[in-house]
Amino acid sequence: MEVTTDFMNWEMVERDQFGRVVGLAAQVGGEMRRLPVYRVLAAVDGSPASLAALGVAATMAGRSAESALHVLNVQPIIGNTSDDDTLMHAGLADTEAARRILGEADWRYHLQLTAGNPAEAILAYARRQRITEIVMGADGAGSVACALLGSVALDVLENTDIAVTLVKSRHRARQFGAGMGDLLVVCDGSAGSLRALHHALEHTDKLTDGPRIHLLNVHRADDGPFRGRPTARNADARSGDRERALQACDAALRTLDAARADYEVHVASGDPVDRILELATSINCGRIVMASHGLGWFAGLLAGSISWSVLYRTVIPITLVK
């Protein structure tokens, strides 16, 4: 495969103690006009899932002058000598499609090629650059959770407090860099769900035409779904359910009001995963934002984790916030 290299002007070349190149960085498309406060990192390896993730990351970063897009590729090998360009050629080959897409869209971004353990390199880069959100592909290989995510995404999720957005290869953005639809924020009244809402607001606050936020509270119905003709008693029950939901989400609602956000409240009863997916498909949903509750993948599967189940069943990007 022919790799495009002629436009590269490396601003940073990092070497290890033996003089071997272990990092290359370049600003593509010109410098930022102002200091970015919302930094989105797309981890790209050339796979369909990572290219889908790139589209979502660009959408997040491209609608505000205060945002920046970082594209990171990690190679597990480096050259043997100080003049070995293995890292450059392997990294540029893996980012060829991503750079072509961004170039055709006249995108401004920071490109980083790094050698090392992929998960560790992603986490280290995110800390060093003060990344606001990590966007990764959600397709993997193997068994159990690795069949869903892959070991790199699992390691990143386990070891970061930064919000992580997971994108499947089957996800198709409406248009590269265009608006990605409304945000569905799942709220159960917990501190984790409130942090998820704050993260959603942090993103929308940077946009001139921010998306609408759909706040969803789901409670499990002990008696199952109602069957039969509606009665005044059933209506009272539904009214009581909504009142309890509003009480559970009181802090979230006050936060939304204080931010003067464009939002809508939804109350549902039944299986949380089913209700989340039903609402996501009935609205103009571009992203689902949820608390991850810090569960590891094995514990999450054993506990029937809602976030894992939603991720498994939908192609809509999901942002997990600890």
Which features does this protein show?
single chain, 322 residues, alpha/beta, Rossmann fold, 2 domains, twelve-stranded mixed beta sheet, 11 helices, 36% helix, 23% strand, disordered N terminus, UspA domain-containing protein
Plain-language structure description:
This protein is an alpha/beta fold. It folds into two domains: 12-167, Rossmann fold, CATH 3.40.50; 182-321, Rossmann fold, CATH 3.40.50. It contains eleven helices and twelve strands. The chain has helices spanning 48-61, 86-94, 96-104, 118-128, 151-159, 191-204, 232-248, 250-258, 272-282, 297-302, 306-313; strands spanning 12-15, 21-28, 38-43, 67-75, 109-115, 133-137, 163-167, 182-186, 213-219, 263-269, 285-291, 318-321. A twelve-stranded mixed sheet has the order 1-2-5-4-3-6-7-12-11-8-9-10, with helices on both faces. Helix 4 (118-128) packs parallel to helix 5 (151-159), helix 6 runs parallel beside helix 8 and helix 9 (272-282) packs across helix 11. 42% of the residues are buried. Residues 1-6, 141-148, 222-236 and 297-304 have low confidence and may be disordered.
